[in-house]
UniProtKB/TrEMBL annotation:
Keywords: Cobalamin, Cobalt, Isomerase, Metal-binding. Residues 533-662 form the B12-binding domain. Pfam families: B12-binding, MM_CoA_mutase. Belongs to the methylmalonyl-CoA mutase family. Its cofactor is adenosylcob(III)alamin. CDD domains: MM_CoA_mut_B12_BD. Heterodimer of an alpha and a beta chain. NCBIfam families: acid_CoA_mut_C, acid_CoA_mut_N. Gene3D superfamilies: Cobalamin-binding domain, Methylmalonyl-CoA mutase. This is Protein meaA.
Length: 666
């Protein structure tokens, strides 16, 4: 028998409300046997805004922890020795800033060591993949070229100063959530990796000798869906393709440096609000896809909780997910064998098919000039793939147990008390974070901060590595918003493509096609009664960049005959109201998945009333607890849709009903 394999690093993706609350959660999770930390930051932190920014309203502490300054980074890791920890930070646009603050906190924890000695001991990962932010997640802060420069600077800095750090975690996770097929997930993630490595090479900051080390520190963050045989083959295809690319394109000789190193969060998109107890077996099957094959096994794994489609998981729910990993690693015999798929002709054939398809798609992206140049193409392809998947679910061709088949159910004891089945983020988090920033600014040396930020801006206008001035700004006490605003001033603002205009129209067969035709006729008839085509404004207020749902609503509404106004993500309530006035719309659909609906939706309703459009119906979609849905309807929202409402054509019919009621047509 071969020697038993070591288990992967076990993490729980965690962070909420405040740094102090998150710190307590981390220490509890570590005591339960978790072997690494995975930090979830809130949306203002991810997009480079302080809690007192107008754009941060309603978003502070909701989907992660606010870290607006060094004092909060200290609190986040209090009593956790960073030189002995492996920390993953899910941060992209402001990754350089977060790594700088993390390093400074580690220096403060080790006053007897020089900064260089501390840096040499730090181990962990910053996600730092900006291309997938333009394609799927939406938490970018700067334009593509400037963002790629920040990534190259960080990679060059870490390879020399923090050699145990993974400076980038190329992230196919959100690509799958945005609709990517396994072939697209392979191709677009590897195209991103090529773009990053080419950028580092072209920057001239890393010698040829050190470049092999850079390749060796590139890691990936992958999604695993419930089709675990296909997912196993996808991972084996990743291993094969990465080995080829690093050897043939970059001449990496050392096989260890060519190893495909990846961590996983299994698929949260596939978790259902209906019969949520089924999510537990989904999570287990998804975990198998990335652990069964020894030669393509994940290096780190974090699992969502069964109730993530309902809201924020409680500590007990996260513990359940950690125990799933521990049972597989320590009770089963999985780690006692060599790769159980070697020699399987079925697996080999599927891997070969995926490799061939991915190579062709990588070549297509490279022919367009690489991943940055092909962002708009890739975005449209993902929106089209996602629309096709939604259509398969609605027609019943793709079965989702408890959703479109086997819907009969006993009452679930897990959700008997729906509001108790999830955790609420601290409603005082925003006030606490604002007070924290105010207190922080009151005690720092303003002259030192101003000088540090001026030096950062000056360096950004040259081709100097920006990690050094960023560390100076962190030590001086600058805030996350100030660091990002300084660079926005130099690099400019940017809005990513929506992919909606280029998405292919669907031809739906059978009863699903008949249903869409019927809705199309009602859209046209209602438009005729109102004297023109029905106009639907789809808006995403706040900082939530999960745009997949909004894009699918926009695409289906267009297919149903609406004139659709969709301007992408990150709009203020004022901008949404202004668009409603300018476009003279018949209905407004708001999409919010970050939990900020109770703050932002009333702001839109108030703005519409002030603009004289109080009679224009507003519908809302998102992860919205039942009690919040009732409250929104009381405030005047015409309809509330949550993930259990998967029928997009049915939703289109509901929008027609809402418009007809608002205009007294029935």
């Amino acid at each position: 028998m071969t020697e038993k394999d070591r288990p992967w690093v076990m993490r729980t993706y965690a962070g909420h409300s405040t740094a102090a609350a998150s710190n307590a959660l981390y220490r509890t999770n570590l005591a339960k046997g978790q072997t690494g930390l995975s930090v979830a930051f809130d949306l203002p932190t991810q997009t480079g805004y302080d809690p007192d920014s107008p754009l941060a309203r309603g978003e502070v502490g909701k989907v992660g922890v606010p870290v607006p300054h060094l004092g909060e980074m200290r609190r986040l890791f209090e009593d956790i020795p960073l030189t002995a920890m492996n920390t993953s930070m899910t941060i992209n646009a402001v990754a350089m800033w977060m790594l700088a603050m993390y390093q400074v906190v580690a220096e403060e924890q080790n006053p007897d060591l020089t900064p260089e000695e501390v840096a040499a001991q730090l181990a962990g990962t910053t996600q730092n993949d900006i291309i997938k932010e333009y394609l799927s997640r939406g938490t970018y802060a700067f334009p593509p070229e400037a963002s790629m420069r920040l990534i190259a600077d960080m990679i060059a800095y870490t390879v020399h100063q923090i050699p145990k750090w993974n400076p980038i975690n190329i992230c196919s996770y959100h690509l799958q959530e945005a609709g990517a097929t396994p072939t697209q997930e392979l191709a677009y993630a590897l195209s991103t990796a090529i773009a990053v490595l080419d950028q580092v090479k072209d920057s001239g900051q890393v010698s040829d000798d050190d470049f092999e080390k850079v390749v060796g520190r590139i890691s990936f963050f992958v999604n695993a869906g419930v089709r675990f045989v296909e997912e196993t083959c996808k991972m084996r295809a990743f291993v094969q393709l990465w080995d080829e690319i690093t050897q043939e394109r970059y001449g990496v000789q050392d096989p260890k440096m060519r190893r495909f190193r990846y961590g996983v969060q299994v698929n949260s998109l596939g978790l259902t609000e209906a019969q949520p107890e089924n999510n537990v077996q989904r999570i287990v099957l998804e975990m198998l896809g990335v652990t069964l094959s020894k030669n393509a096994r994940a290096r780190a794994l974090q699992l969502p909780a069964w109730n993530e489609a309902l809201g924020l998981p409680r500590p007990w729910d996260q513990q359940w997910s950690l125990r799933l990993q521990q049972v597989l690693a320590f009770e089963s015999d999985l780690l006692e064998y060599d790769d159980i798929f070697d020699g399987s002709h079925v697996i080999e054939a599927k891997v070969a098919e995926l490799v061939e398809g991915a190579r062709a798609e990588i070549d297509r992206v490279q022919a367009m000039g690489g991943a940055i140049a092909a962002v708009e193409y890739m975005k449209s392809e993902l929106v089209s793939s996602h629309a096709a998947r939604r259509a398969r679910i609605e027609s019943g061709e793709e079965v989702i147990v408890g959703v479109n088949k086997f819907e009969t159910t006993e009452p679930s004891p897990l959700t008997a008390d729906l509001d108790g089945a999830i955790m609420a983020a601290d409603p005082e988090a925003e006030k606490t974070a604002r007070a924290s920033v105010e207190a922080w600014k009151a005690q720092r040396d303003e002259t030192e901060v101003a000088e540090a930020l001026a030096a950062l801006a000056a360096a950004a206008k040259t081709d100097a590595n920006l990690m050094a001035p960023t560390l100076v700004a962190a030590r001086a006490g600058a805030t996350t918003g100030e660091w990002a605003a300084t660079l926005r001033e130099v690099f400019g603002e940017y809005r990513g493509p929506t992919g909606v205009a280029g998405a292919v129209a669907l031809s739906m067969a059978g009863s699903a096609g008949a249903e869409l035709t019927a809705v199309r006729e009602r859209v046209k008839a209602t438009g005729d009664e109102l004297g023109g085509r029905l106009r639907l404004l789809v808006g995403k207020p706040g900082l939530d960049g999960h745009s997949n749902g909004a894009e699918q609503v926009a695409v289906r509404a267009r297919d149903a005959g609406f004139e659709v106004i969709y301007q992408g993500i990150r709009l203020t309530p004022e901008q949404i109201v202004a668009a409603a006035v300018a476009e003279d719309v018949h209905c407004i659909g708001l999409s919010i998945l970050s939990g900020s609906h109770m703050e932002l939706v009333p702001d839109v309703l108030d703005g519409l009333r002030e603009a004289g459009l109080g009679d224009v119906p507003v519908i809302v979609g998102g992860i919205i607890p039942e009690s919040d849905g009732r409250r929104l309807r009381e405030l005047g929202v015409a309809a509330v849709y949550t993930p259990k409402d998967f029928g997009l054509t049915e939703i289109m019919g509901g929008i027609v009903d809402v418009i007809r009621r608002a205009n007294d047509l029935d």
